[in-house]
Amino acid sequence: MNLIIFGPPGAGKGTQAGILESKHGLKQLSTGDMLRGEISSDSDLGKKVKDILARGDLVSDDIMIDMISNRIDQDDCAKGFILDGFPRTVAQANALDEMLSKKGKQIDHVILLSVDETALLERIRMRIKQSGQDARADDNEETLKNRLEVYREQTAPVLPYYEEKELIYEIDGMQEIDLVSEEIENLLSR
Ligand code: AMP
Q: Which of 84, 128, 182, 188 is deepest in the core (most CB within 10 A)?
């Protein structure tokens, strides 16, 4: 089974993808984590994307599509995967469909974690406070506002694409973590 976990920054995508990975053996593919890995290892790609991430803008579609396409081919994705942070543009969604059909795969569900923006800002402020020195370079108020704007302008337009395919399952992402994962389990057991 292949899933997309979708929602704005701070909606809990990474947390839920991690839970799904340990419960179901599906591989969590977080494009944000992959990019941060490139930055910490100071690779050519890392150097190229460092400032983009720090601003909260999007890395180019070509880079992201290649990255995901290569990753999906690896053995640990054979049982299925959870895309966390991809696709983030309509072009990425189109390219994903095309690459999956070439590989004989498909997306089974798109789990949309919906949020209340005011509560979300508060949640991310907490995350910044709790992580102190280890805070992500893009977890600060200014970048966060940009990330939310980028989500509204470039990422939310992906939703009608999956609505048309009747793949979206919406869950209130502001609930407790356990309740969100319970709802996801309900969906998967149907
Ligand atoms: P995340 O950890 O998912 O919040 O991603 C952190 C940052 O990585 C984003 O703000 C973007 O700069 C970049 N990024 C992650 N995934 C993508 C993607 N699919 N397309 C473009 N940029 C991305």
A: 84
